[in-house]
Amino acid sequence: MSSAFESPSALVDEHKPFIPASEDPPELTLRAVVLGSLLGVVFGASSLYLFLKVGMTVSASIPVAVLAVTIFRGLSRAFGLRRATILENNVVQTAGSAGESIAFGVGATMPALMLLGYELDWTRVMIVSVLGSLLGILMMIPLRRAFIVKQHETLPYPEGTACAKVLIVGEQGGSNARTVFLGFGLGGIYKLMMQAMKLWPGEWDRALVGIKGYDKAVVALEPDPTLLGVGYIIGPRTASIMVGGGLLASLTLVPLIAFFGEGLTTVLPPGQSRISEMSPGQISGQYVRYIGAGAVAAGGILSMLNALPLILSALAGGFKAMKPADADGSNPATPRTDRDIPTSLVVLGTLGLVALIAASHLIPADPVGRVAGAVLIVVFGFLFVTVSSRITGLIGSSSNPISGMTIATLLLTCLIFVTLGWIGSEYRLIALSIAAIVCIASSNGGTTSQDLKTGFLVGATPWRQQVAILVGALLSAVVMGGTLIAMNDAYTTVSNQPADLPTVAAPAGLTETAEHDGETYKVWRLTAPIEGALPGVYLVDESDKPAWIIDPGIGGRLDHSSSGAPLKKFDPPQPRLFATIIDGIMSGDLPWSLVILGVMLAIVVQLTGVSSLAFAVGVYLPLSTTLPIFIGGLIRLLVDRIRKFTPEESETSPGTMMSTGLIAGGSLAGILIALLVVFEGLGRAIDFSGKSPDGGTEFLLPALGSFSVLAAALALVALLGRRADREPEPAKAD
């Protein structure tokens, strides 16, 4: 292995990309940027809808790469156009991946505005989306050499590597292509059968009952092909550390809290009911999540400190390169595959974005407060873009705990505000705006690093990729605000039913007014429950009596319209959690002890020589997510030992190719399943749950049995498959 501090050019020379630096095929073409940007908007909108429905998104890089190869090949055959190069296909997936990462940040943070009593303003959402997405990309550019080049052998970027192999096999064909597309078909069909047709449950869980005081311990597994593939690609070491964190959370922390809280007769904050009445999932969500957030924050800081020499080296090299350059922003002496956007432009762009933040109404404070807010965004943004990029390098963007980094940003920001005595209502809005920009920057920074890893493997030109994702992110960010508001407005309820209205009068002195049904009312924004009134936005008549409730479509509490008809609202967990954190810190009710427990846990694990960041991610994520990753890692361990693969051989083995296909097929199926959420009628028509012949079971097939078949298929292909790059195909008879 080469030294981590060798020159970037030397490392680039050692690495042999699919397209060598000496070649320069078409790459940043208009058709590639346009197609990528349009796919980014489509995937961003569908990802936002999926997040608001179920609180999660699906990584778009691999599905967009598959679509790029398919669409360009179809256009070439239909109209006789030039066949797209692999680098053009890579530009499409780079520009298209931005929409999904922005969707997560917008959906996770912006609805909290309404929960804090503010309007969901389109201008604010758009500004936050644009500034956060562009800031994340610009902050990642100077880190490319540190993470992508110098740590090429230590940061696997499983999804970025999988995406590169999808692009390569789409270019090559042959045995590699057959293995990848076998996994692609199997993963896609499997996930559609599980989540669309619902032939077996999407999660298996068993409580360890029969042991007094330990009945809240639950073992769970999500039988997902993408998680199995990720586990195989990241390998047994990282997979084991992650599942270790998951086992600690589910089989130690949750039962421990349940054991000591069993006898409590009152509610223990931040819980919302007595511990004895809570399910394991509620204990995990209302207590362990704070421990996990503290661990992720500490693990991220420790990880950044460990990588600080590399980061400083990369930054120093970038600043040394601040000299007049060619029109494409490159130094002629630098290989094509190692040319970034010039550091001077990156610095100017970052400073310009920070100046816009400080000058805009995004931070409603005096000039000192605006500058302070902008400084916090730069500090936390760079910190968590770095952390996000490293986590993405370890486990991929799909499992990247961006919400944990957002929680850490909120905790630190609100703590600073409380220390300075900034506890007014406007500072809650400032804290949320800072966290939202950092959240989107972290999400997009991780996605950018994953895309650059894909480009590093296929032989892309970094500055062209960076331009592509800047364009794709800008377009997706502009559209995202309108999409979020349209979804909220579509499900917003205005009700005057007595059961929905407070039984107490509104406070005197309300000044805000609003028009409804031809009349003018005063607006009462209640952000915390009081006796006789639940949180909400109420329209108050002249006698201070609440006459209407305006219940938002996202995070609203009403399950019916004004006519009494059933109505489903969007209720993702993250915005409510963020609003709770802000209220808790500003009012002094946040459980700092739980956060500190997480910090100390990460420090202890790091002192033992184990990666605290991977372990902390395992604590934060549910065991159902880390357990299938662990199984994938075990399969790779078994295969590598039986076939005696070296690490280099294992990277191009049939099992890795098969896992790549499983990730691609499962991811693309996830997007199709999101459409079934929109077209609910079609979803119900193909739903087979509850349709067994005897009527005695909810699902036709068991989850563990179905997942075992998938795992066995991966193991068989990995054990019996032939490596196309090393073992020639049998000669065909004439």
Describe this entry's structure for a reader.
With 734 residues, the protein is mainly alpha-helical. Helices cover 63% and strands 5% of the residues. It contains 27 helices and seven strands. The chain has helices at residues 8-14, 30-54, 61-79, 86-96, 98-109, 112-115, 122-140, 144-149, 158-172, 174-196, 225-234, 236-261, 280-306, 308-320, 343-359, 367-395, 402-420, 425-458, 462-491, 573-587, 592-607, 612-620, 623-643, 647-651, 654-678, 680-685, 703-720, and strands spanning 204-207, 218-221, 493-495, 513-516, 519-526, 536-540, 546-551. The strands form two sheets. It has a five-stranded antiparallel beta sheet with strand order 3-7-6-5-4, with no helix packed on it. A hairpin with a 5-residue loop joins strand 6 and strand 7 (546-551). Helix 12 (236-261) crosses helix 13 and helix 17 runs parallel beside helix 20 (573-587). The longest helix has 34 residues, at 425-458. It is globular and about 80 Å long. The two termini are 46 Å apart.
- Which strand order does the major sheet show? 3-7-6-5-4
Major sheet size, sense and barrel closure: 5 strands, antiparallel
Q: What is the SS-derived class?
A: mainly alpha
Q: What is the rounded distance between the termini?
A: 46 Å
Fraction in beta strands: under 5%
Can you tell me the residue ranges where pLDDT is under 50 for at least 5 consecutive residues? Answer: 1-13, 324-330, 724-734
Shape call: globular
Mean pLDDT: 83
Number-wise, the strands total: 7
The DSSP helix count reads 27
State the helical fraction. Answer: 55-70%
Q: What integer value in Å does the Rg equal?
A: 26 Å
